[in-house]
Amino acid sequence: MVTSCSTNKAVLAGFLTGSALTVLATGLCCYLLHEKATTQADDETEQESDSALQPDIVEGVDGLIGNTPLMKIRSLSEATGCLVLGKAEFLNPGGSSKDRVALNMIRTAETQHLIKPHIGSTIFEGTVGSTGISIAMIARAKGYKAWIVMPDDQAIEKYQLLEKLGATVEKVRPVSIIDKKQFVNLARERAATFHDGEATGYFADQFENEANFNAHYTNTGPEIYRQTAGRIDALVLGAGTGGTLSGITCFLKERIKHLKVFLADPQGSGLYNKVKYNVMYAPTEQEGTRRRHQVDTVVEGIGINRLTKNFDRGRHLVDDAYQVTDEEAIKMSRYLVREDGLFVGSSSSVNCVAAYRAAKKLGPGHVIVTLLNDSGQRHLTKFWSDEYLKSQNIYYELKPEESVQDFVC
Ligand SMILES: Cc1ncc(COP(=O)(O)O)c(C=O)c1O
């Protein structure tokens, strides 16, 4: 009995072990088969998404130019009930909207066989800085030399940047455009007389060159149209050469019939009176009243006292103009940092003051577009320096309790 009982136990134990092993083996097989199937499916999905992936690489520094984002400026939008949008041109690789212009002027000159890379062809320009920096950068990237003639009263970081980019920098006293030594006239003359073996000089001439207008007509304008899906009520811009204002305005007004265009002009510039009354006149131009340089303002890059070809192309489409004081521009720049963390240069500040006024004029619900041309970093020693402003008796503090409606008239 004892023997038979132990035999039965052994059979039972054997049966149970066998069954357990079978279950284990089956489970393992199922697991392995499932793993294989999952891996195969994953591989197939990866292959599918791999084929949908396209390389997204830009060619060189010039590939980084343009396609800048359009941002909602929250503080100004909330203060007006409008959607106030700023195109972040300071994100261009050379730090300003002038990259677009410099690239198109150089490309156009290449197409017209006026310059040839790597033989010493030299690009000359008379500029207050931003265009020079863009030309110097693109000249390096494309095998040209750059020679920049500038007034000697601009922010020091602009000269430093130009030198670091390898440009020849010639600083001259600010004088009237009728003077042969005026920076634009001098750049033209230098280009005409420059020869270095096979290489000649090319005067970029951003004020009169239609490649400036075209850069904005074919790029900046279409970008704004696409980014807003064509829903814009007002465009607000300052003008130096006028290429930005005319190029974008001509493109947008062909498509948006109700669009209003407002010029944002700094104090001391004659364009405000030209738009409002068709007279090129700035009161600060009166004999003996001028305080600083040719346009009597701390703002750099916009404001001018002559009519350029690039401004004239879009002038008939400008509906109205706002004059912006240094006080308003300085306070707006500090306000945008305080409220939005947005650190912009002087011309962008003027644009934002005028954009606020346009929004107030049109009333809530409208879409207002302006440009944020460059960053405050390019203006640290002048527009953004309280010490400099105090030394010029043009220091205006933005008080903690002051809001935009308190400092913009
Ligand atoms: C910083 C900055 N903003 C705006 C402008 C004005 O653009 P535009 O010359 O197209 O009128 C300039 C012109 O030099 C500039 O340097």
From TrEMBL:
The keyword Mitochondrion applies. One of its GO terms (cellular component) is mitochondrial outer membrane. It is an enzyme of class 2 (transferase). Transmembrane segments: none annotated. Keywords: Membrane, Mitochondrion, Mitochondrion outer membrane, Transferase, Transmembrane, Transmembrane helix. InterPro entries: Cys_Synth/Cystath_Beta-Synth, TrpB-like_PALP, TrpB-like_PALP_sf. It is a single-pass membrane protein. Its EC number is 2.5.1.47. Residues 63-373 form the Tryptophan synthase beta chain-like PALP domain. One of its GO terms (molecular function) is cysteine synthase activity. It is found in: Mitochondrion outer membrane. It comes from the Eukaryota. The keyword Transcription regulation does not apply. It holds the Pfam family PALP. It catalyses: O-acetyl-L-serine + hydrogen sulfide = L-cysteine + acetate. Signal peptide: none annotated. Belongs to the cysteine synthase/cystathionine beta-synthase family. This is cysteine synthase. The gene is PARPA_01318.1 scaffold 1359.
